[in-house]
Amino acid sequence: MKIRLTLAFFIISVSAGAQLIHVEGSKALGVNYAYVKNGFNVSSRITFYKSGNLAFRGSIDFERVSFDLSKASIVYANPEIIYTFYNPGDKLFFNVKGGILTGAEFINNSVLDKKKSQFFVGEDIGLCVEYYVTNKIMINLDLDQRFFQLSKVGKASFIIKLGINYNF
After folding, report:
1. What residue ranges do the domains of the chain occupy?
2. Which of 32, 4, 26 has the alpha carbon at shortest distance from 144?
3. What pTM, to 2 d.p., does this model score?
C-alpha cells in the first residue's frame, strides 16, 4: 500500500510539473547572439505558440557593424510568424519563418567626424531549428536572409543567431 501511494504521488508530481511545448498558449522568453558580416547582433525575444505548428515571435535587436571608415549601430523590432514543418520527436523542431524589420541606423564616420541617423524597414525569411534540452529550456539556431529598404548600410544581409529560451 505504501509503495502504491508513493508511486501515485510521484506520477502526479511529474505530471503536474511537466510543461507542454509547442502547444497553444505556451510561451518562451529568450536571448540571442548573432553573427552578421562585419559585426554582431544581440537580441531578446518572446514567442507565443498559437498551435503545435504556428507561433508568433517578436524581438528587439541591437546590431553593431563596422566598415572601412564608419561604424553603424542599428536598433530594430522584428515581429515574425513561424511555421513548424517537421519534428522528428518531442525535442527537435524545424521551422520556416518570415517577418518584418523596422528600426533606426546610427552611422558614425570617423574620418569626416559625421554622424547620421536613418529610419529603415525590411523583411526577413529563414529557417529555425529548436532543440528542447528540458521542457523549460530550449536552444535555437536561426538562419535568416534579410532585405532592407531605406537603409544606408546595405540592401541585403545574412544573419546566423544562436539563442537560449525559457519556456513557460
Report:
1. 20-167
2. 32
3. 0.82
- A 10 A CB-CB count for 95 gives 23
112 by DSSP, 3-state: which?
coil
CB-CB contact of 140 with 150 (8 Å)? no
Q: What is the pLDDT of residues 89-116, one digit of tens each?
A: 889 999 999 999 999 999 988 666 678 8
How does DSSP classify residue 12? H
| 20-167 placed in CATH 2.40.160.20 | yes
Give the Cα separation of 49 and 80 in Å (integer): 12
Residue bearing cell 535587436: 61
d(CA 127, CA 74): 22
| Number of neighbouring beta carbons within 10 Å of residue 139 | 14
In angstroms, the CA 161 to CA 42 distance is: 9
Work out whether the CA dihedral 65, 66, 67, 73 comes out positive or negative: positive
